[in-house]
Amino acid sequence: MNARGWMAFGILLAGCGDPTPPAESLPKFELRDVVEPRLAAAGPAPVAATPPPPSDDQLEEWRALLDTLAAPRASLREEVLADLVSRGAVAVPWLTQVAADTSADAGLRAAALEVLGGIDTPEAAEALVVGLEKDPEPWVRSNCAFRLAASRHDRFLPRMLLRLRYESDDETAVWIGDTLARRGNHSGIDGMLVVRARAKDEERVAWVDSRLAELAAAVGAPDGLALAADWASGELERRHPQPPPSKELEREIWSVIRALGEWDLRVVDDRRFVLSHMNAWVVTPLCETLHEQNVYRRLHAAQCLERMGPRAFAAVPVLLDALAEPRLAPGAAAALGSIRQASARPSLERALRASDLDLATASARALGRLGDAAAAPALLEAFAPGRAVDLRQAAAESLLELGSPQALPFLIERLTAPRAEAVSAEAALQRWLARQAASSDPAVAEPFSARLEAWRRLDDLPAGTIATREQLAARLEARAKLATTW
Amino acid sequence: MPTLRTWSAIAVLALGGALTMLVFRDPPPAAAARSFQSSDECAACHAEVAAEWQASWHSRAWTDPDVLALSNDFANTDCIDCHAPRPVFETGIGKRVLPRSTRRAEGVDCIACHLLPEGSRGTVAGTMDAPAAPCRPVAMRELSQPEFCGGCHDQHKTVEQWRATDYAAKGIGCIDCHMPYRGGDPNRGRDHTMHGAHDLALVRSAVQLSARRDGGVAVAAVENVAAGHHFPTDERSRAADVFWRPLPQAGGSAGDWRFAYRFRSPYRHEVGLVDTLLPAHEKREIRIDDPEASGPIEIALFFRLTPYWKDPARPDPERESNLLHRVELAP
After folding, report:
1. Which of A54, A216, B231, B232 could be cross-linked to B278 through a Cys-Cys bond (beta carbons 3.0 to 4.6 Å apart)?
2. Distance from A65 to chain B by nearest Cα, in Å?
3. What is the pLDDT of residues A270-307, one digit of tens each?
4. Residue A420 and residue A399: Cα distance in Å, rounded?
5. Residue A312 and residue A338: Cα distance in Å, rounded?
6. What is the rounded distance in angstroms from the CA atom of residue B190 to the CA atom of residue B175?
7. Is B217 helix (H, G, I), strand (E, B) or coil?
8. How far is B65 from chain A (nearest CA, A)?
């Protein structure tokens, strides 16, 4: 061979190596103070100047106008409304008082809410948000949600999102979803679909359908279901990117992120809910927070990205780097699995060989969620005898998720093995049965439907009953016995 | 020939030399550092403790069906933090625990409480230094302090509740009640069964029930006499209910149980419910303002680990709860 040949051979050899270093020798992931400097830079939240209290004459005039607005079929309604709105910030405290007065006439309260919606200062928006959060009357809360659609202010979005979690009135939940969608956030569409599904009267169904149809048409989706799917997949925000948040909303978001370090997990969980339901731009501050010195903030930021799922696709590069940070790595692996970008597969496969068993096990689980069947060989290697049993179980469950049943006997054995994650194995087996039963090939679907039916019959407790330890053990044993007949 | 004095001097010197060597001898070689992959490895030497722990609810923290149901099979991932925690010494005393991804079925195990971080003086935390022991324990007083338990148990404010009690002022902490010395003997170490809400005798001893009439109205009183924290505490699923029923008259049968009061801390989503936990040393009176309570009645305090009745409209405390105390009240 001549020199050129040797050079080509050398280049070929060089190209055969894995260009990415193994997990243990990834560059160190930098940790620093992130959140506090960001909040300091954002400055304090603006404090509205308290307007002077209205004079008696002003009050009398406003009251008269509001009475007119509240009257049914009032003439010159639009003019009266415009007049009251023109009073601006000065009238907001009084209007807020009227709207919140549970002893006042409902028409008057509704009129006050209408005017607040028109005034549209930050203080007026705040009054509507407080009404949405705290008023005991569902009709007031739904009115507040409706009015907020037209507000120019976005800093109350986190609080509206949190109401999605706690609102018990169906109509209000629909208006929250509707308002959020009109503001480019479609997190509430799922809730609207739930209200529709459980509605008992045709009128309610038709009303929710009309709202969903309008929102879907506005973004080119065929219907509410497609709209929800587009949102969850991130496709909607790719088609319709949202404007960047206002400075006020950015400050709010950093305050929410700061609370991820709180002791009380209820507080953390609420903040996590808000962040994971925000628009995709929140991925940027969350990715920054992955570098946060405070371990709780960075771990919970990773969980927020995990819960965003495919919408957080922009976080993949930072999450891949985060696999080098020992405390963060399992959470980063979980998030990568949930985001389901195929580009994460090689790094997760490498992490299966990490000396940190927590990372290896979390990566095994993540590969199942990622859903790329090409991960099967790496998972089989992780499943090999001699590997730690937790890693083997995680790999086995993921193999089943990817449609590879090689680890089936192992998982069946885990149903009754001492100190095993038996319920996790049980759930993985049930999901596999359900997928096979739903196969488009009748030769597969039929026998598996029968197996699934027999499997389900072994859980004969009435819905909502918690099994005792003995009942749980008996169920697992029975299912293990059934599974060995497959 | 050496004299007796010479032999005596040689003997004294030899004895002194031997004693010096004994006192200043090299310590036995320390055991090689090792890592522990499973708490099963501890059982080989610590059989009694391991058996106690095996019977405890710490060992079932991951596998208990109630936990699985209330956490939705740990779909509520925050539950993982306390039910399968990373070693407390690794996260930091008094800091919120962090979740682990492996050995989760071992629950709150030996490793979670005793394993020290790499680079520590020893491998595990114990009550004495024993460098020759395979697990290289070192004495760590933090093990006995409520702040140690607080990493998990203060999530529901139990340690915070304790701090406000007389017990805290007197230096009586969590392990004094929940991990007493075996047989009362400090030399026998602490019982790792960690009795708590699943031990009805313990729960019963925490509170007293009494009743009186106030102008004809029945008044039940529940007093937290011995819990070092609120009653109930910790998991929000726990509830203690006061029920009453008319007593049989002239050969009839007792009436149905009627609900009077619940002691519980509500879940976030239970909007409209308020926290009614009973602080330590406090007594709460519950007026039973019902005309049917004017005759002879029975009042009972029941305790349950999960708060939901099979039929909320017709709760059946005798079947669905555990009786703690009962009293009868004459007209």
Report:
1. B231
2. 36
3. 999 999 999 999 999 999 999 999 999 999 999 999 99
4. 18
5. 9
6. 8
7. strand
8. 6
